[in-house]
Design brief:
With 183 residues, the chain is mainly α. It has helices spanning 2-58, 65-80, 84-105, 109-113, 115-150, 154-160, 173-179. The longest helix is centred in the first third of the chain and has 57 residues, at 2-58. The radius of gyration is 24 Å and the shape is rod-shaped.
Length: 183
């Protein structure tokens, strides 16, 4: 009788443990999807602000055609992107083009004084900061998920759920070159 009770208690604990693993993996997967959705919303907001920014700048920066072309190319690349790595690359390209635009705008004091330009610059810079924060959260969630599905005993549940690792929202090769540190 005592043996049966011990076996039932151990079995119940094992079942509860497996349920906890399952629920944890589901929660991590949903956090990844939610954070990726948040990144997409922010990138779309930035995308939607660009025509206003370009129109505001064009009147002042008549000789800066290449800056506008780079923004247009990056914006187009973002619209065409379908995979996470394409979106990350297009996002990085757009961030670089915007940095160039804001740097060149410093040479145009009347543009810098334009209230609409200042508002758009602050709005886009704020969105850039939010994207960086969301990318960090997304990558942390992906890292935790990938570790969990490859660790014992979670990997058994992950295999039963047919879970596979998620891709990180990576920086472009250009960003990696800037960040490299030699020891």
């Amino acid at each position: 009788m005592l043996t049966t009770i011990i076996i039932l208690v151990v079995a119940a604990i094992l079942v509860l443990y497996l349920i906890a693993i399952y629920n944890g993996l589901v929660q991590l997967r949903n956090n990844i999807n939610k954070s990726l959705g948040n990144i997409d919303v922010l990138l779309k907001q930035r995308y939607d602000e660009l025509p206003n920014l370009i129109e505001t700048c064009k009147g002042y920066m008549k000789h800066e055609k290449s800056v506008f072309e780079n923004i247009t190319k990056a914006r187009s690349a973002w619209m065409k992107s379908t995979t996470l790595s394409q979106k990350a690359s297009a996002s990085d390209m757009l961030s670089g083009a915007l940095k160039s635009l804001f740097a060149v705008a410093e040479n145009y004091p009347k543009l810098e004084a334009n209230v609409n330009f200042k508002h758009l610059q602050e709005r886009i810079s704020g969105i850039e900061n939010e994207v960086a924060d969301r990318r960090e959260f997304y990558n942390d969630s992906v890292n935790n998920f990938n570790i969990r599905i490859q660790s014992f005993p979670d990997l058994f549940i992950a295999r039963m759920m047919a879970l596979s690792p998620f891709e990180m929202f990576k920086a472009s090769e250009e960003e990696k070159k800037v960040v490299k540190v030699k020891f």
